[in-house]
Input
Amino acid sequence: MKTLATCRGALLAAALASAPPSGAEMNRPHLSQGDFDKKLTRDTAVLPPSARGVGGYADVVQRILPSVVSIATYSRTPGRAWGFHFQQDDLDQLPPMLRDFFGDWIGPRPFQGPRQSRRPKAPQAIQTGLGSGVIITSDGYILTNHHVVDENDELRVSLSGKTKQFPAKVIGTDPQTDIALIKIEAEGLAPATLGDSAKLRVGDLVLAIGCPLGLEGSVTHGIVSGLGRSDLGIIGKGTGDAPGYENFIQTDAAINPGNSGGPLLDEHGRVIGLNAAIETRSGMFAGIGLAIPVTMAVAVARDLLEDGKVERGFLGIEMGLPDASLLDQLGLEPGGAVVVNAVVEGSPAAAAGFQEGDAIITINDQKIASPAQIRLLISALHAGTEVRFGVLRFQEKSSQAEPLTLTARLATLPSQPDSREPPKPSPTALGDRFLPGVSIANLTPALIQEYHLPEDVQGVVVTAVEPDSPVASNLNEGDLIVQVNRHPVPDVAAALAHRGPSDRSVYLKIHREGGVKFVIIKL
Output
């Protein structure tokens, strides 16, 4: 099983040359988003012909290096770990110098820092991590990762080729996208040029720059291996029940601990991503690096600038992928729609007229392929934004799909998830023929235990499906039917009442293996 390891700092410890600077206060300057945008250097033109010549990428690298910084984190809390440890296999892969340096820290315990003999006596703060960042304005605004600056007492930023360290203050961080905006007090810096990550294609050449293993200004080269990587579950940990917002650029450019927060560049030196994570068994580079698109990073930074947090839009639906029978009835290919599993009462979606079972096919005329895509699009918008949805709704009477346009005015994403409590199911058990070859029964404690059904969902359970039944490919024994033709069914009597004529298609909402499915039974 693969381990997804965030790049939580390099493993080389720097000597503490001076007493830790003061003034790492968490405050935000009075700067409007419009003024902030004017400070950014952008180049979003279509990628011009290749910049690579006889000399490789040396000219591109020399231009960007002054914009790349290393970020050291310090703590006054004794024993705070670096969040990384070595195993013997990792040690064997290191050069002799580094193998000797790290030789004392093999084993399951976290790596705590340099050897005792190498530390200054009684330091006021110890270094706990080292990451990277990229300068985006000439007066010291820097983009990096949340996990680089999280849980620290002090931040110190080093510019490329300079010995002076600058104390940095955190403007704001967003754990759900792993983005942080920090600032140093300096003028006349060299800001990086920001590209347009939306124009990337799989196969485009990229460069990764940062300080892997503490090696400042290291450059690696590769291609874009994939786009839109999501649902990996490595962002948003520690933020409660809310999942993170992942939309990674995948690359085979070598990324190691310490690269976190550093820029991923196109071959013309424009920043198109922030290096954030690696997929690896050993904790070191294994050919799969992940970067956050720069368009997402800058949008988050603009929100952080205002009040240190990110405001996200809220629609109010629970989503899933449509069942094959629903796709067939709607005339859609797999990946062509997202089905609405539930609508939150009083939400913008409810006000717009969304219903359970609706298939969303477009948002503002953009085609939709997955629930993750909708989450990203909605989260990037603010409260009050009107969003237009293209929807297909199955009509039971005509057995046809009706195209609709629904417009929702987004609200602000609530900090806590909705906690509605459905009524308890009826304990009465009955058996009956519901569909050809299908038997259903009211819920009982015994059936809930036998089929591992949720105890807080009301419905009827499928107790038998004959193999030669015409609906055997649509229903399974143990399915929990909660709606028949859009009507809730607390018991078998309700299910039979809403079944309708025997020659008409039946529209079912079912719970299966912890998920929700909408199934159309054609008769």
The chain has three domains: 3-307, 313-412, 432-521.
